[in-house]
Amino acid sequence: MENDLIDVMIAKNQIAIDFDAIETQEEEEESTVLPKGLVSAQNFDWIENEVLFVGVKTAHMLGSVNLSSIDICGKSSLDWLMLASAGCESVIINDPEDEIVSALKSLNTDKKYIAVFYGDTPLVDRSVFFGIMDYFAKSGFNAMSLPRGYVFKRDFLSCIERFDSPCLNKFNEQAFTIVSSSKSISDVSKYLYNKIKAYHIKNGVVLFGDETIFIDGDVEIESGVIIYPNNIIKGQTVIAKGAILESGNIIDDSIISEDAFISDSFVQKSKVGRGVSVTSERVVNQSL
Questions:
Q1: The pairing of beta strand 61-62 with beta strand 51-57
Q2: Which of 20, 65, 103, 158 has minimal Cβ neighbours within 10 Å of its Cβ?
Q3: Is pLDDT of 5 > 70?
Q4: In the chain, pLDDT over 70 holds for what percent of residues?
Q5: 114 with 132: CB under 8 angstroms?
Q6: SS3 (DSSP) at 22
Q7: How far apart are CA 151 and CA 161, in angstroms?
Q8: Taking the alpha carbons of 232, 239, 261, 288 in that order, is the dihedral positive or negative?
Q9: How far apart are CA 132 and CA 198, in angstroms?
Q10: What span, in angstroms and rounded, lies between the C-alpha atoms of 201 and 65?
């Protein structure tokens, strides 16, 4: 292994994929989040300045596993949800169950709006959140139920003790998929893996036979990398341009330098130097 440095660093949520880049719409294209006929606004700066994003940590269990903390494509369900908050002030609370209004009243915030989403809906992303807030503001509501959550004007909360209102709009049904069973975990995982791969393909990564390629949400891959079938890339891994991953690799929390070649190997918490070939090896805790 080489010990030369490369100009990348591993950090938690290093690329924080929000997938907007692969869902760019023409300016006049109808939103997929809002009801038919409503068009999403183009400037969302007000949302970042005026909304408190509240993530609710749920207590769903699958056997002995808490579903809000289960690993899905490298992040917990709650972590995926919190990426949707983008530049907004955000806070995580434990599930108050039927006392949501009281729990929100206890929050110290001067934001005009409070948006509440539950940590068991990891497919809610920034575009969904922004679209909902745009719809809420344009409609002039004081409060609104979501398929899994709420939006309130902060001043309105001081006037009520409870809020029980049906959700008048389903918005994006897939985005509000609840992780509550083995099937829903599998469905959500497949959906996220496909979005992650689409993100990297758009950025110039070549994936051959991508149905057998699994890439976690915190993996960073530079343009020009070639990845063949049967590769698992996990954790906070960085893969530099020109690298080739032949079949049969598991790469976890590692740095793969430019023009490296890896085949049929397990690489964990290691650095593979520039131009180095690794074939049929187990490389752990090397030069990182």
A1: unpaired
A2: 158
A3: no
A4: 84
A5: no
A6: helix
A7: 15
A8: negative
A9: 24
A10: 33
